[in-house]
Amino acid sequence: STKDPPKMMKKKDKEEKAPKKDDKSQAKALRKLQVFFDKNAQLSKRFKALVSYIERATNEDLTKFFAENCHLIFTVFYETFGAYEVNCKKGKWTAKEVQDMLTVMENILIYLQETIKKRWQIRSFGNFLEKILARENKSTFRQTGFKQLLLFLQTLETHDDPLTELVPSAVDLQPFITSNSTILKYQTLSAPDKTLVLAPSQSANNPETFMKNSLGLFCILLEHMTNRPECFTFWWNLFKAKLITAFYPDISKQLGILDDETGFKPLCPPLIQAEIIRELENWMKKKEIYHILWGSDENVQIMLEIFRQSCLLPITSDATIKKAIEIYQNIFFVDKPIPEVQPKLVYYRKFFLEKIAHVFETDTPNTKEGFENHKNLALHCIQLYRTIFLDSYDSLENETRETLMYTLLHITTTLLKESTNNKTLVEAMAPTILDTILFIWIRTKTRKEELWKALQDGISGLFHSNEPVVQTKAKIIQLTLVIKEIIYPVKEKKAKVVKVAPTGEGQEASTTPPPKKAEAISKCPDTLPPLEVITKDPLIHALNWTVDEIKFIWYQMLLIFNKVNEIANPVIHAEAISCMTGVINILQRSEDELPYNELMDESRPQSLSLINIFGAWLFECCAIQLSTHIKGKADAYGTLCRLICRHHLNPLPIKLLSQFYAIIHLGLVNSSNTEISWAILQNSGNIFNLALPGANILIPYFIEEIRKVLKTGDTPSTSVRMKAITILSSLICYPEHFEGVTIPVQDHSINGPKEIKMLDLKKNIQDILKDTLKVDPVSEHKVMCMWALCVFLFQELHHTASKAIVSDVIQTVLSYCGHNDLLIIRAALDVLSSLSLTRERICLIDEKNELAELIILHLCGNIQKYIKESSLSKGQNKDSVIADHFYCVLDWLLSYQNTYVFDNEKIAKNVFEAIEVGLFGTLIPHPPSESAAKENKKDKKDKKENKRASIRDLDKNPNREDSAFFEHLRQNPMHNSPAISEAADVTLMHLSNFLQNFPCKEGVDVHSSLILEVDDNLEESGATTYYVYNDAIIISVVQVPHFTGGTAARIITRDPTGKYAWDTLLTYDHPNSEPIPPPCSLYRDSNIPEDYVPPPDPELVKLPVYNRAAPQLPRYLPEYNCSMIDQLDEVLQYLSDASPDCLSETGQRLNLPVPTLKEYVEKVTSTQKALLIQASEDQKVVDHKKATRPPKEYWMLKPPKPPVPLSPYHYCRLILHHLGYLAFEQRHLFTELENSQRFHRSLAQLDKTFGREMLKIGVLYVKEGQDEQNVLLSNDMKSPLYREFVRGLGWTIEIEKHRGYLGGLDPKLTTGTHTHYYANSMIEIVFHDVTDMPTNPNDIQQIHKKRHVGNDIVHIIYSEHARDYNPQTITSQFNDAHIIVYPLPNGLFRIQVYRKENVQMFGPLLHGMAINKKLLSVLVRQTAINANRYVRYNTEGYNRPYPNRRRALDEIFKRFKVTKSYEDVMTEIIQPSPKALPES
């Protein structure tokens, strides 16, 4: 718009602003006035005098002057005007004269208003104003003249005078015409010719100048109307009659104020509209004016039309549109609208909301600036809708709300329709407008089905683009978060407040908890990644939801996706399905995190049935036949599998499971895209370990698909292959467990018959595991396969085992002991070590011990190979690999119980060569012996071989230099590896102490002797002497009384494995012992006559019966001959009564023989016959000998009496001599130790050092409905299945009497009376069973239980709960691994394995396995042992017990070894000096 023109002053304004005249000026004015009154003076002088007087006179004088001389003034003015017109025709014009005429005209209008009202000289004045307003005049004169016209018309106060036509003619709307359809009734004021122009303008004909001048006059009119509110009615009516009809012809015709086709069509010119809107803002600030504007229906319709056309303006007028919207918003949407608006406020609001929609339908300019303007304007309108809804929601009427909602929906569907041409704007606007409309629908919380149906149809109709799906998904997710808070509220744990001391004066102590390091969380393959952190929408979450409201609104929003599977675009379809997946993930995770007692609380809102809500959509999506919708289908398959393949509080309906199996079969068999089958595998890892009814029908199809997935090893993702191996591992026990089950096969892709026996799948599982082990590039997958094969072998060996299968698997595992990956080697060796537990069962199928020999020889070969060569790749820990080989060999050697392993020369040779290489770094060669040289001379063709020296040869031919050489190699082996030397030493020492010699008669808990040198010591026996042999063993000898009445020599040795003691007695005869029976054979000719009748059984001796109660322990009674009593039978009877849990499932008593199996009846019968025949024959021989043998006294030699010892150390010296320690050749190996108090303190400390690895493992029992720490720790009862499971982990021990490792349990019985214990020569395990510990009713947290369980590295959890166990239930920093067992209805047990990230994968049990009852306890125990070792061995600063004891021994040797000559040593032994014995 043009610059505002100067305003005309009213008379009072002129009075206020007129300066005070001094006397001199007034005198001059009076002199000029005399010229004016002089009729003879020239007209020009008279006019100038008039002007001069006006400029100098006061208002009071001018008022009197104009009243008294009005006619004369008019005459001079008008004649001057006429004279000026004559001069103009001659081409003479002056701006000063025109300005003077305008000045006189202005004063006439001011001071002669009453006279003009009487229509005095109006034609003459009109003529002057018309000519001054001609468009050819200068704009300044025109504007001044237009102001005088407005003042002139206002004075006349009439609308009918023809002079009113000057207003529209002067404004002249011709420059705004842009369409041929626009016709204006008012003509432009223009001079007939150039000679009649009063003040010609050079640029008058310029279009831009013309439009600018017209707009300027229009602005003067509007401003004049605003500044005179008392006359606004006159001017508004004139404005309506002369201009509104031109600006808004359509509404004018409707209102009857226009009866022709003139006016601007279709819209008012934007510049004019902008000025109207600008001035409308001022009008609405003045009460007198807005009452007029909204006081009549006619005016209201005009006001509404102004707004309507404002919303239809082009985007170039965006500022006008914004201003119009703002003005009308302040009219309709305020707390107290003006009274005139109130009656129809609802209608006005609806009109306002509907017309804003035009903004979105306007075409967007093709310029960047135009696009930004349109986008910003549209965003402004959307924000306006949102603001109105938020700020005025409570005050809005339902009708207004619905109007707003429908309007927004119309805007949305119109703007985002597929055929829109304004796609760029749509892309920019879509997020905001969709967010707004969805929020408004949510905000209303309406339950009106028509509204929701309209929204659902409208938004779903926009799914040709992605943004509606994205925005709908975002809102549904926000509502899901609200549902999570209301239906699945999780109580936040209160942080402990720790007071921190103030840091300075005047500072208060802080209560902020200290920063806590992030603890590692145990995870399993099923552990889902944390959900994406979603920022809560505060507007949605602040709506004070009730349960019914949120569930209804949430579900109605979900129904927007009701036709999700009809979306044609695969990308958009996948995005829509991902919305459902995201919602399911949030709610499923929320339900799992909610404590069980809160979940089952009837007072809380009922949980949502996700499968009922989403199942139909997911099943329908999985059945889509389109090959393009693969991603959405895969997502649906994965989500469906996660929904079904998990623990459910209530069993799933068979109909639902059947439908699920059918759709899974469809995905595995008929899908041509592997992405779907991969999604199934990745999300159904638990399908076979949950005992889902009927799931077995899918086993062949899963196995076939797993075979395809694992065939190459690198096609699918790592997670898919891991889940495939997990599923396959869960099937290992199925073939034998469901041995008689057949599975129908309905697909041609499964090779073989139409029915598959479950037992036939065993070979498939084995082959897939072996093939995967070869081709899979991921080390962890190879480890999983090896552990799965390990469990496979356990299962095979506990059923009808095949030597070929067992041998094949063992050879496969052995081949990976030479792999270049440390993780794989360690797993292979641990698998072999675990298999050593099955040694007895392997012997049943391998009588020649070929498999054990194969394992031992292969491992020994690897040891020598790795030590001699550097065959491992760089970066691998060769030392630890070789050490693990030694420990694995040791496990297998110690597994020989019934046969002496070293009877096999091949094994003995390889084992001791491996030990020798481990100790010294090489085999020790020496020149061939004389016999070997002779043999070589006889056969020259044979190659000369160097024989190696052995320790045995060295002992036979001792040489000091050789001893020094071996000692040097022992201290500095050629491989320079302490770990290898230690492992070899451990192997040698354990073989020496425990091979076929463990456990001792005292029980497995007594690994080291508890006897001390001071026990049973004779006072006259002299001092105890301590020696060190070969810098490896401490030997002490002491004389003690023997129970036979003699004196024994007690030998006590201490080595890195422990302490051992023997009592030795010097004997010459065994007069009281029974004669050793001659050797006899049970061998007999197998051709026993069929008619052979065994002799009748001898008459049974009636054994006396103990007079005791059933649970009473059998006791010795002097009146009975113990040889006549079956003591074993008595003990078994007692155990049957006292410990019924020891009975078999049939309840048969322990002293009754077990019925012979059918397959062994024939063999047993044959053996019995042979034994009876043998017994008969033996009895005949015995009878014959008795009859013919002379009396014993006749032929028996009487032994000499033992000599009386002359030395108190006599028997000690004899045993040392008999053992060879006192030989002169042993003088350098057998050394005395200092027998001092310091030495005894060190010895006592050594005896406290464990010789075995000590493990403590927590065992927790979870009953149905338990998932909180306090509840679990309060359990003190066992179910029958759990009792049987725990009993299989180890032996029940009495804590008070137990002499072995207790794992912190209190012998004073504060932690219970019994616990479970397991041990072998390498380890001791105490199981901290929570149910065995007393429950303190006054302690909710059961601290005394958690003190033990919370500090255990490994937890074994037996859960009968319907939900999965949370490894964070027991809060502790030490629980690094969890092995969880769930009993299943089908008789199997599901396994879950959790471990922290820093713990490598362990076995034999893998996560997801389903194990039978026979294997459960053994495999769980072995898995816990391996887990404990993996954690400990990776813990910085941890050392095994053996090196600890070795270091303690070395320290003793270094500090207390005494250097003496051989003669002094012998003198000390023969006649020892008295020394103080150590304190008891």
What does this structure look like?
The protein has 1480 residues and is an alpha+beta fold. The chain has an 8-stranded mixed beta sheet, with helices on one face. The N and C termini lie far apart (116 Å). The N terminus and C terminus are likely disordered.
Strand content: 5-15%
Structural class designation: alpha+beta
Rounded mean pLDDT score: 82
What is the CA–CA distance across the termini?
116 Å
Report low-confidence residues grouped into runs of 5 or more: 1-21, 494-517, 871-876, 929-934, 937-960, 1073-1108, 1476-1480
Main sheet makeup: 8 strands, mixed
Write a compact overview of the structure shown.
The protein is of the alpha+beta class. Helix 2 runs antiparallel to helix 3, helix 17 (318-332) packs antiparallel against helix 18 (345-356) and helix 41 (850-868) runs antiparallel to helix 42.
Please give the structural blueprint:
Layout: H1 11-17, H2 23-37, H3 43-56, H4 59-68, H5 70-89, H6 95-111, H7 113-117, H8 122-132, H9 139-156, H10 166-171, H11 207-227, H12 232-247, H13 249-255, H14 270-283, H15 287-293, H16 297-311, H17 318-332, H18 345-356, H19 358-361, H20 368-392, H21 398-415, H22 423-444, H23 449-460, H24 467-487, H25 538-541, H26 547-558, H27 570-593, H28 596-599, H29 610-622, H30 630-644, H31 654-670, H32 674-683, H33 699-712, H34 718-730, H35 734-737, E1 742-744, E2 755-757, H36 761-775, H37 779-797, H38 803-815, H39 822-835, H40 839-845, H41 850-868, H42 878-894, H43 905-920, E3 925-926, H44 930-938, E4 947-948, H45 951-956, H46 960-971, H47 978-994, E5 1025-1029, E6 1033-1041, E7 1047-1055, E8 1058-1064, H48 1127-1138, H49 1161-1188, H50 1192-1195, H51 1210-1218, E9 1230-1232, H52 1237-1248, E10 1253-1262, H53 1269-1273, H54 1280-1289, E11 1291-1294, E12 1314-1319, E13 1323-1329, H55 1343-1349, E14 1354-1359, E15 1377-1383, E16 1389-1395, E17 1410-1411, H56 1413-1433, H57 1441-1456, H58 1462-1470
Parallel strand pairs: 10-13, 10-14, 14-15
Antiparallel strand pairs: 1-2, 3-4, 5-6, 5-9, 6-7, 7-8, 11-12, 12-13, 15-16, 16-17
